[in-house]
Amino acid sequence: MTTILPSCVDVTGTGAASAPPDMVNLDLRITRDGESVSETLREVDQTMSAVRAALTNEGVADKDLQTTSTGIHQRYDNQGQPVRGFSGFHTLRVGVRDLEQVNRLVELAVSAAGDSLLIDGITLSIADAEPLLATARERAFDDARRRAEEYARFAGRRLGAVIWIGDTLRGPEPMMYAMRAQSDSAGLSLAPGESTVTASLSVRFAWADDPTPTDETNTEDRDR
Q1: 145: Cβ–Cβ under 8 A, 6 or more apart, which residues?
Q2: Are residues 144 and 66 in the same domain?
Q3: Which of 30, 105, 110, 171 is the most exposed place for a label (fewest CB within 10 A)?
Q4: How far apart are CA 96 and CA 25, in angstroms?
């Protein structure tokens, strides 16, 4: 969008920057059934504790393990009628900072939990996107200046200083995968590709040859 005003010109510039993802988030979910609430909770907790121990023993830091949801509910048959027993679940998000380690960690989790382990999703992302955002901002500003210079040339004007800047950023969009882990085949085939961040800047430039008198000049003229 471009707006040309008597004393300034408003332009919008866009920029993008890309890089391969360097982090994987695994959403692992344990589901267990039991005859009572206490039994079900105990089964879920024991299984998840075994998974956590397997992951931490492999070097996953505690800060990269986060419970995202947990719960227990009555079991129902195919007709929606309640039956004896309960089902419980616990979802754990695992941050993996080495993409080469993903398969090994999934294998360990499957070994610890068996077929009670589900993989709700796999997200590839960039751990620190700030350098990419800075590059995207710079490219967006260059694009805005280039547009403003074009319009100045079209209008036969000279571009002046920047008066105002506003930005809109869109972070890297994570790539999602979903699957069910199988105890006999836990290998994953991931294509990391690239993650892209974009920036959009609204920039207001003054005209260097602005002939519009200032309020101060008008006041002086009136005093005369």
Answers
A1: 13, 203, 205
A2: no
A3: 171
A4: 6
For the record, the structure tokens of 182 come out as: 């199988």
Whether 34 and 16 map to the same domain: the answer is: no
16 in the same domain as 28: no
* CA gap 165, 19 in Å, rounded: 26
d(CA 109, CA 54): 7
Q: List the structure tokens of 145.
A: 């200046």
Containing domain of residue 40, as a range?
A: 24-125
Residue 164 pLDDT > 60: yes
Cβ neighbours of residue 90 closer than 8 Å, sequence gap 6 or more: 29, 30, 44, 45, 48, 67, 69, 70
Q: How many residues does the chain have?
A: 224
How far apart CA 88 and CA 80 sit, in angstroms, is 17
Do 44 and 112 lie in one domain? The reply is yes
Q: Beta strand 8-19 with 2-4: parallel, antiparallel or unpaired?
A: antiparallel
- If asked whether residues 83 and 59 sit together in one domain, one would say yes
The CATH number of the domain where 206 resides is what? Answer: 3.30.110.170
Cβ 9 vs Cβ 17: under 8 Å? no
